[in-house]
Amino acid sequence: MFSDYSNLTNLDNMRIQFTLRATSSSHKYKSISRLAVLCLLGILQCSVAWGAKEKTNVLFILTDDQAYDTVHAHGNNRIATPNIDSLAKQGMSFTHVFNQGSWSGAVCSPSRRMINTGRHLYQTGRGPEKLDSKTVANIKLMGETFKENGYQTFMTGKWHMSEQDWERSFDQGKSIFMHGMAHLHKGGQFNTEFVDYTPSSSAKEKFPAFKASKHSSEVIADAAVDFLTSEKSKPFMMYVGFLAPHDPRQAPQAYMGKYPGDSIELPKSFAPSHPFNQGDYYIRDEILENNPRTPYVIQKAIGEYYAMIEHTDAQIGRIIEALKASGELDNTLIVFTSDHGLAVGRHGLLGKQNQYDHSVRAPFIMQGPNVPKGKSVPGMFYLNSVFPTVVDMVGIEIPESVQAPSVRPLVKGDKDKVFDSIYGSYRHFQRMLRTDDYKLIYYPMLKKTQLFNVAEDPDELINLANLPEQQSRIENMMAKLEDWKKVVNDPLDNDNVIESYKTLSTGVNDSNKRPKAWPALP
């Protein structure tokens, strides 16, 4: 029967067959009815599969400690980042995107909590803040939201959050790094300990550990490429978290050799030491090199930093090529950013525990369906907008627990920035307010203020805070800073610093001790 009726091509033939069917035996009628039902089910299945296929995939790439100005396309002619440059050319760049701050010396961890919850610094639910249990229970995670909306979620690389949060977020994972950084005594970047994810009732069996035998960035890219070349029945959301360019600063010699220290130009804001103890001046990041720093020490450190970034860029290129080979490039939203920046010798600092632009500002590039090509706008938003933006761009409803805004209106061209001012925070030591033109940094423990005209002095070299004509500006900016503190639930009271900040579980203890060889700072 199937062969008799499978090639009907016009209405007349269909009428003939229906007439024949009406006069045929009941057995034949039932057979055709079953055939019709099966055909209908097949059509429905195809429709469902097509609908799933049409959903936009997401590839989220997050580097570690990569400052905004370490991308060739952003004006740094000393570094080669061809693959990140290509993302910028084929997509949209946002030039002023900031990490909101940290309640910990390990700035990477709070940044990731904000990215994955879409919430403000003191309201992420797993930090030191004391939120009620109902609020914490209702906080959605980015990967979890994609899972709940029919996506296959995959993660590789640095997570730096809990295993429980990882399992809420991802179906699959390979070469996952749960910790904060690679350590030289544990293998450094070339023998990093990763874990794979295997569903199991035993916590130890769920995340079996293994030592990689190649650079961490290559291991992570391998895992991402393997996922992209595998069979997938659903749209996917990929989270790729590189450990680089966080120290230890190691890259293959082919890359290290491109950036010898004596070929590196010192940054304009280079200084042997910071002029005062900005808080946590003796933290791990700051004692990686002796203080005062010599020019060559910083040139060498920058060269190593650049080598790691170019090597990571090459791994990003491998991932993009695999995405292209899979046929899914045109149907994938790609977001590239970093958790924050890094000083590397600027202002006499090495780490990110400060409020200068080199440490709080990150690159942010988006490429994919409905994203303009080659466009650049200020942005003026925080990294916690990653979550609401990616779900909004692919048509998923933003969860109620998310506090940060989607930047989709910027992508559509409705405006070019989200906020008129940006807030920043580092423990109880620093608070910051930045506008398009000016930046104020306040040090509550020291009662000290810095004011920079960032429009004319982007390297933040000239402190205007003591000029009489700037006092009204400082007062206005301090008032805006207090407004922001209310928005983000910042507990710090400038007049009662220690007691007010003790409301956080991190407390105010400074465990960093000055090395004997270092000079004491005011």
Automatic annotation (TrEMBL):
Keywords: Hydrolase, Metal-binding. One of its GO terms (cellular component) is cytoplasm. One of its GO terms (molecular function) is metal ion binding. Its EC number is 3.1.6.-. Gene3D superfamilies: Alkaline Phosphatase, subunit A. Residues 57-396 form the Sulfatase N-terminal domain. The keyword Transferase does not apply. The keyword Metal-binding applies. InterPro entries: Alkaline_phosphatase_core_sf (IPR017850), Sulfatase_N (IPR000917). This is Predicted sulfatase. The lineage of its organism: Bacteria, Pseudomonadati, Pseudomonadota, Gammaproteobacteria, Alteromonadales.
